[in-house]
Amino acid sequence: MTESTTDTWDxxxxxxxxxGENVADYATKGGLRTVIVEAELVGGECSYWACMPSxxxxxxxxxxxxxxRVAGASAAVAGDLDVAAVLERRTGFTxxxxxxxxxxxxxxAGIDLVRGHGRLAGERIVDVTQPDGTVxxxxxxxxxxxxxxxxxxxxxxxxxxxxxxxxxxxxxAMTEVPESIAIVGGGVVAAELATIFxxxxxxxxxxxxxxxxxxxxxxxxxxxxxxLEESGVRFVSGSPxxxxxxxxxxxxxxxxxxxxxxxxxxxxxxxxxHPATSDLGLETVGVNPTDLRVDDSMRVAGVHDDWLYAVxxxxxxxxxxxxxKYQARAAGLAIAxxxxxxxxxxxxxxxxxxxxxxxxxxxxxxxxxVFTEPEVATVGLTSRAAADAGYPTRIVxxxxxxxxxxxxxxxxxxxxxxxxxxxxxxxILGMTFVGQDVSEMLHAATIAVVAQVPxxxxxxxxxxxxxxxxxxxxxxxxxxxx
Length: 482
Known about the structure:
alpha/beta; seven-stranded mixed β-sheet; Class-I_Pyr_Nuc-Dis_Oxidored; FAD
């Protein structure tokens, strides 16, 4: 890409991950001259250290497990995973951490790129510290969007920083699998990484303070924990009190309360992520970095003349790539429409709910998948969240393994589906699927939840036979007759 010599654009975007790219794409298609500022790789966390490499690492084990569950196919399966081939395939998905193809896409889309660390320096002004240390000042005629994502949260543990713990970045970019690893945390990232390391032959210990996957339904948490334990993952309750890395390169983790110490080659911290708002200069435009608030078009509250937008993980609304890209579409369209005068820029003017300019689905309709064994696919509210919100509910569970399509899919198929039903409006507030390959059933549930399709209308959405989607009919029958 030939970098533009201008220092003025209609829109400046800080952060060239999937979110920033989508804001840029939609705004550029709306007629704005757009530049992206990026300090690392164009494509961001998802492309190189999160979504894509982690799912590439998980897939081989999933395929092997699926084959072993089908008589006739299982007899053809011999041996274990080829670890070197798994890592090589992962590297292919990251383009060996080379962003040339992503840069080429920016060029083809008419989006400019400036390399370096971007920081707000005043109204519609971004200072970029370039790789050579020089500072280049960029000015936006219309808007600035900060799309810097999130960063790992580290617990306060004596000696942890000095022990140089792994995060998801080191894990997904590893060139060799450690013989043993201790994972601190019990959320989605921790569970998926435990699945990866165990499938590749490492001894895995998970150190968790409470329930595994505690934000999900118990049917999901219990199933994943049981599966991990059966695969050989060891669970330890508690929190590390101290970590030391020995002369041999291994780590020793003290738990306190006279609990036995844990020894491992590596320690991985997966205790959550928080919005990457530091060193962005937000305070220079009157925004508290620890209290960043946006409306549904992703405009930052409290900024004079309403020119600043924040999109994706940095907002703390839904820390998922697909939700960030959804927000980005709304923001890009809104920025372009406000620049063209077809959408009001007044602070009091808010886009209508469910319009192209509003990320309304972020509130109670978020879909997500945990790519463990078994998979967990969810959308909308859990039973606990629905109760906390005051909805009158009925919970309907159904054994997915009893559906004919599941029995064909895998011998001895085990899984559960839970629907959270609003008994007054007779709509589905949330659904959770647990089982092999359930992620492929999620979008139908997402449509039902987002569109608030009445149960009486869903009754006429006939599932194909014999597929696992027949569980939809069984859920409706249970709700109607049980």
